[in-house]
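Annex B. Sample input.
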Amino acid sequence: MPRCKPGDLAIVISAHNRANLGRIVQVLRLHDGRGSLAYPHIAGTVWLVRDAGGRRMIWRSQNKDRPWRRLQGPVPDAQLRPIRGEKPSPVKGGQRAGRLDSPEPAAAPAQGAIRRSASKA
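Annex B, continued. Sample output.
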């Protein structure tokens, strides 16, 4: 079962060209397996992706004659890790739970404390 789905953002975690490692891409659709950048020998799902930052990525053609610099191209699902946020868990009363690691808002200083520090300056 593929990890990614159309519309996902994903990070390239494995690549034949090291310049593509760590790139954030948008998964567009399943690749149809045609064209100069096809992966007919790859078993499994292959996606057509686009660099999310608008930069060109580097691919090699089937006969590895020269590198291709393109904004979009095929990437096997196994070389991608989807980036998805966590869904908030519901709490009683229909309100969402807050983050446990978020700090409490700082209390405002007493009005007299502000006057005293301003008069010393």
